[in-house]
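ESCALATION

Customer reports they have been waiting on this structure for their group meeting. Please prioritize. Original submission:
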Amino acid sequence: MPERSASPGRSSHGENAEHTGAPEVYHDYAHHPEQIKKMITIANEIKDKNGKVFVVFEPHTYSRTKALYDEFVMCFDGADKVILAPVYSAREKPIEGYDSLKLLNGLKGRVDAILIENYKDILFELKQQASAKDVIFILGAGSIEKMCSMI
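Update from on-call: job pushed to the front of the queue and completed.
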């Protein structure tokens, strides 16, 4: 299982990433806009010069999504593709109007972003879009880390 740290976790493909033609995959606990910005900066530093940065983000709690909405809309600059998963509620009740769809709508025109409702379909999208030159950062404090073992 990939590590959780302030810097990217180890690649879920380890040393085999280059040999399999698969993109490098990292997981980080980042769930605050400032942390996300740092991860995107790191991703751009480590990707192949012709590669892309894919960010899979699972917002952590409805209350955080609401409180930091404006910052979330701004923090994905530098990513080539953002895939949003549904909000990880951590037992919170949904806050009407503050979910991943609202975040997606806020990202329109800033970054190429889509909302995908389940891990299986996120995995399919990544396999269709990402190449060995790319890096994939899976970000969030909820159950999104399960994605790393699926890629």
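Sent to customer with the following note: The helical segments are 17-20, 33-46, 62-67, 69-74, 100-107, 119-129, 146-150.
Escalation resolved.
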